[in-house]
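Researcher: Please translate sequence to structure tokens.
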Amino acid sequence: MEAPVKSCCVPASGRAAGPAPSLLAAGGVDDARVVDIPGGSVTLGTDTPFFREDGEGPARRAALRPFRIDAHAVSNRRYAAFVAATGYRTEAERYGWSYVFHSFLAAGTEAPSPEGTPWWRQVHGAYWAVPEGPGSTIADRLDHPATHIGWNDAAAFAAWAGGRLPSEAEWEHAAKGGDDSARFPWGAAEPDDGNALCNIWQGRFPVRNSLADGFLGTAPVDAYRPNGFGLFNTCGNVWEWCADPFRVRSLSAAAKQRNQAATAERERVMKGGSYLCHRSYCYRYRIAARSGRSPDTSAGHTGFRVAYDAGASQAM
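Model: Translation complete:
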């Protein structure tokens, strides 16, 4: 994949395109808390975009049907149940590597970095069950979000669980918690180093994390206060995949070029930012913020949550 790395926490995968895994029939164990989200006319995007090149604005209205969505991101425990039931192998396992943040590597570990983002390391053998590579474990993180999950991996789990990935519009509406003007899931207050409202970076990225919120990496999926709909961690913690192809709604030459690259890479929308976001670097933990990556991209901060059509019941 040859699209340039953007000024964002999500590195381009750099992998050669391969066949996508098949979606799996429903029938799994799903212990998620699922929230009913009302439909109606909703506001998407923003008239005050921070990253115009990402297509954050302008604000627009959209009509949504009622739907259901997981209260939190899919945890390691849930993903382990899926793998045990189906034998599914993620993109990171099939390719043999995934991106790991440099602070998580053992001293002396040699691993190459993608151009432009030296804090990411290409670690062979890293995937959801061994998130820092061979020798690491999720045994103490079963209630944390599953990571190193590509779009194809997330879509396969969602189909098995009797659901689907949310659309970007559904994700934004659910993340606002009933406040159509909300900038963050809790309202307008800016999180910062002294006001830990979500799991993002504190300190100076990427060299010093003060751990003011108590987390160097992921936090439990139900950490922090839920929003008005009862959803946890829609901003910060892990990036979450949406169903939509990534597109920038603009007629500018830059947008045309970006869309051509996104189409060539079959990019999908990611929302919410992650534990690596900081206002000085990746101010994409706002609800209107968005990013796009190819469906086989995986890293130590990519995850997802599942949506369901209204009236549908997830597999038990």
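Researcher: Any highlights?
Model: The first helix runs from residue 76 to 86.
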